[in-house]
Every structure is written in structure tokens, then in C-alpha cells.
């Protein structure tokens, strides 16, 4: 889906969809929902919206194709700004294991507007971090979340971040691993020189170096058409996304 064709960004950060797009009302994540995963406490009111999630967005006529393949297409808007000096972000979650498998469900993301930092983290059984990377993504970039990784999305920019995702349609996200440690193993904060940088989360007892990568350098598990959106790729070849199931 494309900004300006399928949806418009309103000043509030909400999306106004074109008539040919079927969409739900957004789920709203407020500061009160996310206080525990930010680096510092803040006196800002808890009813401050942080991001909006539109689950199950599709063109008229495509509902059956998604249902038949067990895949859901979502849009999320993460508002710009900071909580204290930390850049706005999602609460973060892990995915459960697939039935009769040790692999967890993967997920695919695409930036439609703005820019993103995707923090991918693998934990040990004790909840300590084993591996962590930050993926820098811009409009059109596609980011695959592999099995075994939890993830947090940060908006490091000055405009709303709009992203799409494709995901298996029935599983429930696991929020507890990040909540137990007050977020991922690194926070992204504004430093004294006005630039963003990563700061270690002291609630983790071990220390693991952060890898920073650009989205175009990430390996892709399937051969996507780079000139088309995730949505278009799915409509053309839904079998490519069997890896999500």
C-alpha cells in the first residue's frame, strides 16, 4: 500500500484511507501502556498516544486471499517525539513457537513513510540478551524478523513512521520478556549534542555488543520484487510467504 494513493496521514497521525481500502478502527497504544519499557519515568500524562495499529488492512476483494493463506496485513503509525530524551517506540514483543516446532513465527515489515530503527533481540532461556542488532530502514525498505527474535520499532525521525507488516493471522504476541527487563537491551536516546545514540539497559546483567546494519544489507529469505510493496508481492505470489506460517 502506498501513502498518497491508499491512505493519507492526518495531522494527528491517524490514517485516512481511500474508499477501496477495507480497514478497522485503530488500536491505540498510550504512554500509560508503555511507561515500563522506557528508560526513565516521566510526568507526562498517561493518555498521550504513542502509536496506532490497524490490523487486517486490505483492498476490497482481497479478504478471501488473506484468509485462505492464514496471513494478515497490518499498518502501524508511530508518532515522532521523545519520552524524556528517549525516542518514541513500540512496547516490543516476542513471537510464540509454531505448533510442534522449536521455531517461532517470523514477520515481515516495510517502511511506507518516514524512517525506522528495528531492534532485533535474541534472549537466553533466563531472559538475558544473547544477540542484538539495530536495523536502519527508510521508505521502501523491507525487514524480515527471523525465528527466535523479539523486536522493538523506534521512530528516530521528525515525522510519523508508517509501516506495513505481514504476519501469521492467529498467534498472540508475547510482551512479558521485554516488560520484565524494562525494554530491549539498548535504548535509543537524544544525546547532549542533539543526536541519537544507543544506551545500554542496565536491567540486563550481561553485556552484548550492538550490531548496526542498514536494511538493504540484510539477507532476504525469499526473492521479493524490490519495486513492489510487501502487499503487492503477497497478492502476486502468496506462496512466498508460507515461511510466516
Oligomer: single chain
Strand content: 35-45%
pLDDT < 50 runs, ≥5 residues:
none
**Share of helical residues:** under 10%
Q: Give the strand order, joined by hyphens, for the main sheet.
A: 4-5-7-15-10-13
Given the structure, what is the number of helices?
4
- N- and C-termini, Cα separation: 22 Å
Name a few traits of the molecule:
mainly beta, 245 residues, six-stranded antiparallel β-sheet, Jelly Rolls, four-stranded mixed β-sheet, 9% helix
In short:
This protein has 245 residues and is mostly beta strands.
Task: Give your account of this protein's structure.
The chain has 245 residues and is mainly beta. It has one domain (7-244): Jelly Rolls, CATH 2.60.120.10. Helices cover 9% and strands 36% of the residues. The two termini are 22 Å apart.
Ordered list of secondary-structure elements with their pairings:
Elements: E1 7-9, E2 15-17, E3 21-22, E4 27-30, H1 31-34, E5 49-54, E6 58-59, H2 63-69, E7 71-78, E8 82-83, E9 86-87, E10 107-113, E11 115-123, E12 129-138, E13 142-145, E14 150-154, E15 161-168, H3 176-180, E16 186-190, E17 196-200, E18 211-214, H4 230-236
Amino acid at each position: 500500500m502506498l501513502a498518497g494513493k491508499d491512505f493519507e496521514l492526518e495531522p494527528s497521525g491517524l490514517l485516512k484511507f481511500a474508499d477501496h481500502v477495507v480497514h478497522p478502527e485503530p488500536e491505540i497504544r498510550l504512554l500509560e501502556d508503555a511507561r515500563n519499557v522506557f528508560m526513565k519515568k516521566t510526568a507526562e500524562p498517561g493518555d498521550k498516544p504513542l502509536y496506532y495499529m490497524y490490523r487486517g488492512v486490505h483492498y476490497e476483494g482481497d479478504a478471501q486471499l488473506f484468509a485462505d493463506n492464514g496471513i494478515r496485513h497490518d499498518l502501524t503509525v508511530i508518532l515522532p517525539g521523545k519520552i524524556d530524551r528517549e525516542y518514541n517506540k513500540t512496547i516490543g514483543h516476542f513471537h510464540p513457537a509454531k505448533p510442534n516446532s522449536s521455531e517461532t513465527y517470523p514477520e515481515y515489515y516495510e517502511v511506507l513513510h518516514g524512517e525506522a530503527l528495528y531492534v532485533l533481540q535474541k534472549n537466553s532461556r533466563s531472559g538475558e540478551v544473547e544477540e542484538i542488532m539495530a536495523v536502519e530502514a527508510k521508505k521502501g525498505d523491507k525487514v524480515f524478523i527471523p525465528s527466535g527474535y523479539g523486536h522493538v520499532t523506534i521512530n528516530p525521525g521528525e515525522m510519523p513512521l508508517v509501516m506495513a507488516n505481514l504476519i501469521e493471522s492467529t498467534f498472540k504476541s508475547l510482551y512479558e520478556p521485554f516488560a520484565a527487563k524494562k525494554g530491549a537491551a539498548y535504548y535509543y536516546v537524544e544525546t547532549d549534542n542533539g543526536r541519537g545514540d544507543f544506551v545500554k539497559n542496565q536491567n540486563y546483567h550481561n553485556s552484548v555488543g550492538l550490531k548496526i546494519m542498514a536494511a538493504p544489507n540484510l539477507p532476504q529469505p525469499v526473492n521479493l520484487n524490490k519495486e513492489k510493496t510487501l502487499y503487492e508481492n503477497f497478492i502476486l505470489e502468496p506462496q512466498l510467504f508460507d515461511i510466516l506460517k
